[in-house]
Amino acid sequence: MSEDAKSLIEQATTRFLEEVPALEQLKMVVGVDLRGRGDLQQYRLELPGVKVTHDAAPDARVRVEMQRAFFNVMAVEGKVPDWVEAFMYGQAKAAGPEQHLRLISKVVEAQQERDNLRRARRH
C-alpha cells in the first residue's frame, strides 16, 4: 500500500510539474500527509527531480495534508485547476512559510493565465 502511495505521489507531482514547468527547478522538501481511517501516512517529497520516500520529513519547508481517498482520485485524474480548487475549498491543506506558499500560488496563477490566453487565441 505504501509503495502505491509513493508511485501516486510521483505521478501527481510529475503531471503537476509538466503543467507548470516554471516550478520544475524549485528546490524544496515537501511533507505529504495522507489521512485514512485512523491512519496517517507521511511521505517526503524532494524537488527538483521528484524523489519520494516514506518518511516524516522533519526538514520539510511545506507540508501538504489531505484525505487518502481524495488524493487517490486527484493523483490519477487531477489537473492544475482541480488542485487549485481543492486547496481553495479545504479538501487539501498546505502549511509553511507564507513567502513559499505565495510564490507557488503566483507561479500557478500565471501559468493558468497563459494557458487561458492560448485557448482564447485558438478559437
How would you describe this structure to a colleague?
The chain is an alpha+beta fold. It has one domain (2-118): Nonspecific Lipid-transfer Protein, Chain A (2-Layer Sandwich). The protein is built from four helices and five strands, in the order αββββααβα. The protein has helices at residues 2-19, 68-77, 80-88, 98-122; strands at residues 28-35, 40-47, 51-53, 62-67, 92-95. A five-stranded mixed β-sheet has the order 3-2-1-4-5. A hairpin with a 4-residue loop joins strand 1 and strand 2 (40-47). The protein starts with a helix and ends with a helix. The model has no long low-confidence stretch (mean pLDDT 89).
Main beta sheet? 5 strands, mixed
Reported CATH architecture:
2-Layer Sandwich
Distance from first to last alpha carbon: 45 Å
Summarize model confidence as the mean pLDDT. 89
Structural class: alpha+beta
Q: Helix proportion of residues, in percent? A: 40-55%
Which short descriptors sum up this protein?
single chain; 123 residues; alpha+beta; Nonspecific Lipid-transfer Protein, Chain A; 4 helices; globular
